[in-house]
Amino acid sequence: MKIAVIVKRVPDTASVIKIGPDNKSVETDGLKFVLSPYDEHAVEQAVQLAEKGECEVVVVSAGGEECKETMRMALAMGADSGVLVKDDAITKATGKGVAICLAGALKDMGVDLIFAGKQAVDDDGSQVAERVAELLNISHASVINGFILGEGKVEVVREIEGGSYNMEIPLPALFTAQKGLNTPRYPKLPNIMKAKKKEIKELSLADIGVSEADITSGLEVTSMEYPRERSGGRVLEGDTPARVAELVNILKEDEKVIYTQRA
Amino acid sequence: MSILVILEQRGELRSCALEAASAAAALGKKAGLDVNAVLVGRSLESQADKLAGFNIKKLFLYDDEKLENYSNDAYVGIVKELVGELSATVIIGSASFLGKELCASLAGRLACELAQDVIGLDWDGACVVKKPVFAGKAIQEIKLTDSLQMVSLRPNLFTVETDGDAKPEVETRSMPELSIRTVIKDIVRASEGKIDLSEARIVVSGGRGLGGPEPFAMLQELADQLGGAIGASRAAVDSGWIDHTNQVGQTGKVVTPDLYIACGISGAIQHLAGMRTSKIIVAINKDADAPIFKIADYGIVGDLFEVVPALKEELGKLAG
Q1: What residue ranges of chain B have pLDDT lower than 50?
Q2: Could you tell me if residue B310 is inside a domain?
């Protein structure tokens, strides 16, 4: 069985995001880049399956040379090899273009299963994996919290608001991982060393039959701003009963955000 | 050229569907475009009444028992065909769990750009949206420049406004021939009456300061009193004190309630990203220097094990 995992390089979630002088992009100087957190769950799922049976796990990404560093993190977790669609044009592509590149790399790989994170925590685009499934014409389910591999099919638990779907999906299929799926492992030092020797195959756009025009962006970021600044408000003074009484009064009478006083 | 709004249902129209209808009406007015709507499900004719006043020209109602619950293959197939039939140029959906999947798949099939989870929608010859990135640490303004444009709207954010009481013309259609590959075996719903975190108007959230799983019961009681839901910081979730579905933050849910009460949460940047757009933030924390106080509207510096019970008591008095 062959499993592919789609991964993305993103700034660590502890990063402070600074908008660059162009007011359209983020300053990358000084940012620490990591494997997108939900992608870690995707890699973990694939590696766990590989540990249980005959499986090959290939990490797939699209972008510049720097993506290799992130891919090595997935390789250190236990993936066998990597495929990087490498072209500077991809760094300017939107989710639509990136999906075309990834699908181009995946279409002839003969994979039975594809995992990805439910979203990348940088642009929160929430669409690349689903687009890949469409381009490959395979079925998929997003935001899964449970996965059981069966014969030619899988059973998954898919999160929705206030509940979940238990679904059965035929292979080949693609799934996007939510946090509850598993607990990603921390790579051990020997595995980090081993990962440095694992192969990351490079593919050009030409290799996958994609032209720069195919991945041209159909949207334009016109500006970028910080969210509305919240200034620290009032720290309430007095003993606990007095402060609590004041707080409830404020929330009810002034802010009018308490509506349901009766159970 | 027209707008097609995709309405989400769960037996009845969800509130995000009305928000999308209202936003579509406003956009249609600005852009001078007709608005049509699509609703896929089972026995939903009566729902058309709820769509009065949104200037929706026509509601396309796809009705079949097989369509009762969301099926990616069926829903995407149906909407894709309808987009072509209507020559729709702007597609508006909801950024709910299922709505995001539907929009992403549809964008893949239509090969068009998609802005998910937008918090602002405007028109300048084309859709101009505001979209949070890095879980809201920054907000992009994006212009969709292709002829076919798709957006999904963050739930709980767009106001529902009606104009008049004109109802859409309803065209009920049967399910087209489609191959459905996935099977829903079971739908698990959270316990009755429990409010979902992402849709709650009030969120009571707990963090490291709780010290263990047990105090979440106390927060749950407070949330129940307020008609709210329980949230948690990453620290509390990673410690195994509460389920990850309760996590608020960059690797959890982004919430926009009217009232967010943070108990024993210091306010790590990853957490703030998920709740800073709440209308009113209240922080209860022992540490007066905790970053959460920098963004809280009202703060109580104190022991949450003293403050929360006092708060419950005070709210109890209101209930009288």
Answers
A1: none
A2: yes
Q: Over the stretch A9-31, which tens digit does the pLDDT of each residue have?
A: 999 998 999 999 999 999 999 99
Residue A261: per-residue pLDDT: 47
pLDDT digits (tens, 9 = 90+) for A181-225: 999 999 999 999 999 999 999 999 999 999 999 999 999 999 999
ipTM of this model? 0.93
Contact B297 A180 (CB under 8 A): no
Q: Where are the beta strands (DSSP E) in chain B?
A: 2-7, 34-41, 56-63, 90-94, 113-118, 120-123, 127-133, 138-144, 149-153, 169-173, 183-189, 202-206, 229-232, 259-263, 280-285, 298-301
The rounded distance, in Å, linking the Cα atoms of B273 and A30 is 20
Query: Are B109 and B221 in a shared domain?
Result: no
Distance from CA of A197 to the nearest CA of B (A): 31
Name the residue in chain A with its Cα closest to that of B298: A234
Specify if B128 maps to a domain: yes
Q: What is the distance in angstroms between the Cα of A64 and the nearest Cα belonging to chain B?
A: 21
In this structure, the answer to whether residues B74 and B201 fall within a common structural domain is no
Q: Does the distance separating the beta carbons of A19 and B280 come in below 8 Å?
A: no
| Domain around B210 | 197-319
> A129 contacts in B (CB within 8 Å)?
104
Same domain flag for B216 and B168: no
- Measured between CA atoms, the residue of chain B closest to residue A40 is B251
What is the pairing mode between strands B34-41 and A219-225?
Answer: unpaired
Interface A-B, measured as beta-carbon pairs within 8 A, has a size of: 278
Q: Tell me, yes or no, if A90 comes closer than 8 A to chain B by beta carbon.
A: no
Please tell me whether residues B159 and B262 are part of one structural domain. no
Amino acid, res. B113: E
Contact: B186, A165; criterion CB under 8 Å: yes
Reported as a single tens digit per residue, the pLDDT across A68-105 is 999 999 999 999 999 999 999 999 999 999 999 999 99
